[in-house]
């Protein structure tokens, strides 16, 4: 097909528009795509409708969810604060929240703000695999790391008192005849910078208190069951907003949202 001179003249505009649209869907204050499911919008209604506590072996809180809805300390509107007395002293697993819906492959957008130095939380994919939120830690257990698997991409972190964004694509483990044949994969942008590409996840870390399958064969006993998105409460003031997800069917987790 031959394009007319007029059509050719529109190509730069079409390219710029598509590029701008892709950029609008990553990073802090990313626009929610029309085909995405909103998981957190700063309202009590959405928090109670879409989330519940993860009732693992260490769970010691009670419904309704004790996390607070507070004013956004940077921008307008309200956000969700990881404040639950059950987690005081850093007791993870006591008051973590998880989506009621469970997922396999997906693209996830999460915005978080750490209020004080040393603030600790975490984003769990399928309630199994943690993407760390931990201010001040640049190790494989630190900020933005696929926990204990990659080094922390700390250079991409905006710091305390500022909003940060994870844009994650996740491809769930694949099974055949009940046996694991392909390990889970994850890719991620951190504040618009690509920091992880097709990282293979080998196990669930943290033991039975951390999430699904954590107590199975020292975390290597991954099962073929979907899981929710979990946000960790560790007795620190970490705040979340603009959390949304798109279910996918991925051949690879390497999805570049800017292409």
TrEMBL record:
Stretch forming the signal peptide: 1-24
Pfam families per the UniProt record, alphabetical: 3keto-disac_hyd
The keyword Membrane appears for this protein: no
Gene3D superfamilies linked to this entry: Exo-inulinase, domain 1
Keyword set, alphabetical order: Signal
InterPro entries assigned: AL/BT2_dom (IPR010496)
Domain 3-keto-alpha-glucoside-1,2-lyase/3-keto-2-hydroxy-glucal hydratase positions: 40-246
Protein name: 3-keto-alpha-glucoside-1,2-lyase/3-keto-2-hydroxy-glucal hydratase domain-containing protein
Record organism: Gimesia aquarii
Lineage: Bacteria, Pseudomonadati, Planctomycetota, Planctomycetia, Planctomycetales
């Amino acid at each position: 097909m031959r394009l007319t001179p007029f059509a050719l003249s529109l190509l730069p505009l079409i390219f710029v528009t598509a590029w701008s649209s892709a950029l609008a869907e990553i990073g802090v204050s990313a626009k929610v795509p029309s085909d995405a499911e909103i998981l957190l919008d700063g309202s009590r209604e959405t928090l109670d409708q879409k989330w519940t506590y993860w009732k693992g072996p260490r769970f010691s809180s009670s419904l309704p969810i004790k996390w607070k809805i507070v004013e956004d300390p940077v921008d307008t509107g309200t956000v969700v604060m990881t404040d639950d007395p059950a987690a005081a002293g850093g007791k993870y697993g006591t008051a973590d929240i998880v989506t009621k819906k469970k997922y396999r492959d997906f693209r996830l957008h999460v915005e978080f703000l750490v209020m004080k130095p040393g603030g600790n939380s975490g984003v769990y994919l399928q309630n199994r695999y943690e993407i760390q939120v931990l201010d001040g830690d640049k190790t494989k257990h630190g900020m933005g790391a696929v926990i204990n698997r990659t080094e922390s991409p700390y250079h991409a972190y905006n710091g305390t008192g500022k909003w940060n964004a994870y844009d994650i694509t996740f491809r769930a483990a694949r099974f055949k005849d009940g046996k694991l044949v392909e390990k889970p994969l994850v890719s991620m942008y951190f504040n618009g910078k690509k920091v992880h590409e097709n990282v293979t996840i080998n196990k669930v870390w943290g033991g039975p208190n951390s999430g699904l399958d954590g107590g199975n064969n020292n975390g290597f006993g991954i099962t073929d069951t979907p899981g929710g998105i979990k946000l960790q409460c560790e007795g620190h003031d970490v705040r979340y907003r603009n959390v949304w997800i798109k279910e996918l069917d991925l051949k690879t987790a390497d999805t570049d949202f800017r292409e």
